[in-house]
Amino acid sequence: MDTYEKYYSTIAKSIKASEIRELLAIIRAKKDVISFAGGLPDPKTFPKKELAEIAQRIILEYGDLSLQYSETKGIRKVRVTLTSFIKDVRGFSVDPENLLITTGSQQALDLISRSLLDPGDVVITENPSYLAALGVFRMRGANIVGVKIDEHGIKTDLLEETVKRLVSEGKKIKFIYVIPVAQNPAGTTMTLERKKHLIEIANRYDLLVLEDDPYSYFIYEEGVDATAIKALDTEDRVIYISTISKILAPGIRIGWIASPSQLTRKFELIKQYLDLHTPTLNQYILAEILKTSLVKEHVKRLAPYYKVKRDIMVESIEEYFPDEIWYTKPVGGLFVFVYVNKPGFNASAMVSVALDKYKVAYVPGKSFHPDGSGANSMRLNFSYPTLELIEEGIKRLGEMIKTEA
Ligand SMILES: Cc1ncc(COP(=O)(O)O)c(C=O)c1O
Q1: Cys-Cys with 245: which of 114, 232, 250, 400 at CB 3.0–4.6 Å?
Q2: How far is CA 363 from CA 23, 291, 304, 378, 382, in A?
Q3: 288 lines ligand 1 (CB under 6 A)
Q4: What are phi and psi of 52, to 5 degrees?
Q5: Ligand 1 centre from 105 Cα, in Å?
Q6: How many CB atoms lie within 10 A of CB 225?
Q7: Residue 230 to residues 69, 210, 252, 355: CA-CA distances in angstroms?
Q8: CA of residue 46 to ligand 1 center, whole Å
Q9: What distance in Å separates the CA atoms of residue 325 and residue 400, rounded to the nearest whole number?
Q10: Which ligand 1 atom is at minimum distance from the Cα of 103?
């Protein structure tokens, strides 16, 4: 019994512990389990020496500024540096005034949701989609409508039908949320045609688009189109968010929003009351890093490092899993998402069997699906385990699916 229940707000009452967090806590206690359940970058990739040197220099040289309170929107000098980085790496221009620095892109999702969503508003997402984004939208009372994906991301023909239907039912759609490159969890990447179609739909039906872009910086294949949807935006409808979490280190907690100026102003006003500003010290560290070639060189090292892990996972799936599965080989990111097409296979129900009997862990995919489907799916992380453990773990999972389902 929770003795504080009577004090809780409606949001606090409605919020439930995330399935993943609870599962991760159980797994941490089981040392003999091979875990594909996390979503962490491999700490071996963190550029610790370089970061330590830069952090020390910033504190010694800019201590008075870097340890002080700063602007809510983000330090101007840092925003200016970041706009050059965005232009250089993601190919679109943004005025530093239209850039807001956030405490991770998770805060960006929160600021945007607080600014745009009222209970009952519709948000359209990919089905499946990023769990912590779905959580934020739900916390604002949004009604989330998932649209099917295939290996080329959200099926924009179905998206158009869905929008048409919702509009005809009088529903208020606020935005379409997509992760166009190496989607979390499904690993899908949108084609240029689909991105153009999505913009067309947003223009036709007067909708905003929320583009979440953490994974486009390192891609494992040649010839993948990673054009930002924001770069195709002709009517100022795209709110673009990104982060250094996957290209440097998530613990630094820096993300950003590039958006039309009036929206940026609203996000800034709300951020004032959330955390005043993102840590000044970390912003200075980021600006200093972006002046060097560290990120670019680091990203060049990350792609082959994670590609080997992805390849081992995909090859092992091909070898050890039964034929009745569907998944896409992700061109980036940290996950392979597998649907097991065997009648009665329930990934949530199988978690404890996987843990206790086969000593392997994954995240059941159902909670990533806003439409409640996906009971037969599982998310497998390949960035964290070693190559040997990836092969052994997939072998065990394959055995489980073949014998238990
Ligand atoms: C699609 C997506 N969006 C946002 C985030 C949040 O990242 P952060 O808050 O570390 O920038 C993640 C983290 O895994 C993610 O996968």
Answers
A1: 250
A2: 8, 38, 25, 6, 12
A3: no
A4: -65, -40
A5: 6
A6: 15
A7: 31, 9, 25, 42
A8: 17
A9: 14
A10: 9
pLDDT at 204: 97
Task: Determine whether the shortest distance from the Cβ of 243 to ligand 1 is under 6 A.
Answer: yes
How far apart, in whole angstroms, are the C-alpha atoms of residue 243 and residue 249? Answer: 10
pLDDT in tens, 356-380: 999 999 999 999 999 999 999 999 9
User: What pLDDT is attached to residue 14?
Assistant: 85
Centre of ligand 1 to C-alpha 372, Å, is 22
Q: What pLDDT, in 10s, does the model give residues 21-49? A: 777 788 877 888 999 998 888 888 899 99
Quick check: helix, strand or coil at residue 115? helix
- Is 39 a pocket residue for ligand 1 (Cβ < 6 Å)? yes
Cβ(179) – ligand 1 distance below 6 Å? yes
Where does 250-322 show beta strands of DSSP type E? 255-258
- Please return the burial class of 133, using the count of CB atoms within 10 Å of its CB with bins 0-12, 13-18 and 19+: buried
Check: pTM over 0.85? Answer yes or no.
yes
Residue 203, both tokens: 């223009």
- Mean pLDDT over 97-114 rounds to 98
Q: Is the beta carbon of 250 within 6 A of some atom in ligand 1?
A: yes
Using the mean position of ligand 1's atoms as its centre, give its distance from the Cα of residue 345 in Å: 29
Please check whether residue 252 is in contact with residue 103, taking contact to mean a CB–CB distance below 8 angstroms: no
Q: How do residues 275-290 score in pLDDT, each as one tens digit?
A: 999 999 999 999 999 9
Tell me which residue has its CA closest to atom 6 in ligand 1: 106
Work out the number of other CB atoms within 10 angstroms of the CB of residue 272: 11
pLDDT of the residue at 15: 83
Residue 160: how many other CB atoms lie within 10 Å: 17
Confirm if 198 and 229 have CB atoms less than 8 A apart: yes
Atom of ligand 1 nearest to the CA of 246: 10
Is the CB–ligand 1 distance for residue 105 below 6 Å? yes
CA 106 to ligand 1: nearest atom: 9
Instruction: Say which residue the tokens 């604002």 belong to.
Output: 140
Tell me which of 24, 131, 245 to substitute to probe ligand 1's pocket, judged by most ligand atoms within 8 Å of the beta carbon: 245
Q: Relative to the CA of 105, which ligand 1 atom is closest?
A: 11
